[in-house]
Design a protein that fits this description.
Blueprint (H helix, E strand, L loop, with lengths): L15 E5 L4 E5 L20 E5 L7 H15 L4 E6 L10 E5 L4 H11 L4 E6 L11 H7 L5 E5 L8 H13 L2 E4 L2 H10 L7 E3 L20 E5 L8 H11 L7 E5 L4 H7 L2 H12 L6 E4 L5 H9 L3 E4 L10 H8 L4 E4 L2 H6 L5 E4 L4 H13 L1 H14 L5 H18 L5
Parallel strand pairs: 3-4, 3-6, 4-5, 6-7, 7-8, 8-9, 10-11, 10-13, 11-12, 13-14, 14-15
Antiparallel strand pairs: 1-2
Pfam family, one: Glycos_transf_1
Protein name: Glycosyltransferase
Keywords: Transferase
C-alpha cells in the first residue's frame, strides 16, 4: 500500500498526465523518458491513500466544494490525497491536483484511470452533467480502467431517468466496488429502482462544516430569512417573495436575503434574467425593501456567519425529487431552524424536529410556517436545539472517517491492508 511518503507499487508506472492547453489534447509522459520508475511499496497499517475524480476548486460548484471538503477531512485522518480534476478551462494550482480529465478524449480517460490507480482507493464523484459523453458516460470507461478498489459517490439518483441515464448509472454501479449515497431516500431509490447489487450500497451523510459556537443569534429588530446557494430557475425564490407579502405587517418586519452568485451554466445561457425577474417580482408585490440579493463571493467563514445570524434558513426548491442537498446539511450544521419544501432529503433530515417541511404547491402553508417561527420563539428555539444536536454527526471529520472505514473494508477484502 502506498503511504504519503512511499512510492507507487511495482505494477504501476509513475507516469504523469499532462494536458496540452495550447492544443487541447492530452498525453501520458514519464519524467524518466518514458521509463517506469516505480519501486516496491511499503505495506503499513495506516490510512490508505485516495485518488479523487471530481470537479474541484477553483471550479465553483457544489461537487467541487464537496470533494475539497472530503479531501480535507480525509487528510485530518492522515490520508494522502491526489485529485484528478474534471477540466473546465480554469487554471488550478492546488498541489493535490495531479491531472485533469478532458471531456470526450479517450486518451484523457485512459490517463485519468492510470493516475487514480496510483492510489490505494479511488473515490469517483458521480453526477450526470460533469463528464463527457452522453449523460456523462465517459466515467464508465474511467471506472473500467481502474485496478484499485473504487468508491462511487452518487450525488443524483433520479426517480424517472431516461433509458440512457439508467444504463449509465447501472454500468457505474456494476464497475464500482462500493456505491455511496447520502440519504436513505437515495439508498432506497437506487436499490429498488435500478439494477444494482444492494450489498454495494451504503449511506454516508453529506458532510458539513460545524461552527465551534452554535449559540442562537441575538434578537434583531428585523429578523433575517436566508436562502443561499448558486442561483437559477428551480430555486423557488419566488415562493418566499410571495410569502413576504403576508409577513410584511409583522411588528418585526423580516428581511429576506438571497445570497449567492448565479450558477455559471445559467449565467452563460440566460445571464441574470432569473435574479432580475425575482427583483421585479419583489417590486411588483410591494416588498422590495424587504428583499435583497447578495451576489458577492463568500468564503466558508463568511457564509457561516451569515447563516448563524439568520432567524430561519429557507430552502424553497421546486424539485420534488432531490435526495441530496448540501445546503440543507450545512443549514442544520449552523444550528438554525430550517423551512423547506417537501423534497425527499428535507423530509428525511427534518423529521426529528430541526425544521419544517411544506408542500410545494401550498404557498399559504409556507407563509404560515414562517409566521409561526417569527412570532413564537419557543418553537424556533426547539428547532434550533435539535439542529444543534444533529450537527456533530454531520461534521466532515466524522463523515471522512466513515469513508475510511469503507475503504479499509474494501482493501481488506482484497488482502491489501495489513
Amino acid at each position: 500500500m502506498r503511504t504519503a511518503s512511499a512510492v507507487t507499487s511495482p505494477s504501476i508506472c509513475s507516469c504523469q498526465y499532462v494536458r496540452d492547453t495550447a492544443l487541447g489534447n492530452s498525453t501520458l509522459i514519464s519524467p524518466s523518458s518514458l521509463r517506469c520508475s516505480a519501486a516496491p511499496a511499503r505495506r503499513v497499517a495506516t490510512s490508505p491513500s485516495f485518488g479523487v475524480l471530481s470537479t474541484y476548486p477553483p471550479t465553483r460548484c457544489g461537487l467541487a466544494t464537496f470533494s475539497a471538503a472530503l479531501a480535507d477531512g480525509l487528510s485530518v485522518h492522515g490520508a494522502d490525497i491526489s485529485v484528478v480534476r474534471v477540466a473546465d478551462g480554469s487554471p488550478a494550482a492546488d498541489p493535490r491536483i495531479i491531472g485533469e480529465l478532458v471531456s470526450d478524449s479517450p486518451a484523457s480517460v485512459a490517463a485519468a484511470a492510470q493516475l487514480l490507480n496510483r492510489s490505494d482507493v479511488a473515490i469517483v464523484q458521480h453526477e450526470y452533467g460533469i463528464y463527457g459523453g452522453p449523460d456523462g458516460d465517459d466515467v464508465v470507461d474511467v471506472l473500467a480502467g481502474l485496478t484499485v478498489p473504487s468508491i462511487v459517490v452518487a450525488h443524483t439518483v433520479l426517480k424517472d431517468p431516461t433509458p440512457h441515464q439508467r444504463s449509465v448509472l447501472e454500468a457505474v454501479a456494476a464497475l464500482a466496488d462500493q456505491m455511496v449515497v447520502m440519504s436513505e431516500a437515495a439508498s432506497q431509490r437506487l436499490r429498488l429502482g435500478f439494477d444494482v447489487d444492494p450489498r454495494k450500497v451504503v449511506t454516508i451523510s453529506h458532510g458539513a462544516f460545524v461552527p465551534p459556537d452554535l449559540a442562537s443569534p441575538a434578537r434583531q429588530d428585523r429578523p433575517t430569512l436566508l436562502t443561499w446557494g448558486l442561483l437559477g430557475p428551480g430555486k423557488g425564490i419566488e415562493r418566499v417573495i410571495d410569502a413576504m407579502v403576508a409577513l410584511h405587517e409583522l411588528p418585526s418586519r423580516p428581511h429576506y436575503v438571497v445570497a449567492g452568485r448565479t450558477h455559471p451554466k445559467v449565467l452563460a445561457a440566460e445571464g441574470e434574467s432569473y435574479r432580475e425577474a425575482r427583483a421585479e417580482q419583489a417590486r411588483r408585490r410591494g416588498v422590495a425593501g424587504s428583499v435583497s440579493f447578495d451576489a458577492g463571493y463568500r468564503d466558508r467563514a463568511s457564509l457561516t456567519r451569515l447563516a448563524q445570524a439568520s432567524a430561519v434558513v429557507v430552502l424553497p426548491y421546486d424539485s420534488t425529487d432531490q435526495v441530496t442537498s448540501g445546503v440543507l446539511v450545512d443549514a442544520i450544521a449552523t444550528g438554525r431552524p430550517v423551512v423547506a419544501t417537501a423534497f425527499p432529503h428535507a423530509v428525511e433530515l427534518l423529521a426529528s424536529g430541526a425544521g419544517a417541511v411544506v408542500a410545494h404547491d401550498d404557498p399559504d402553508a409556507l407563509a404560515a410556517t414562517l409566521h409561526t417561527l417569527l412570532t413564537k420563539p419557543d418553537i424556533a428555539e426547539a428547532m434550533a436545539a435539535e439542529a444543534i444536536r444533529l450537527a456533530p454527526t454531520m461534521a466532515w471529520p466524522v463523515v471522512a472517517n466513515a469513508y475510511l472505514d469503507v475503504s479499509r473494508s474494501l482493501l481488506a477484502q482484497r488482502g491489501a491492508l495489513v
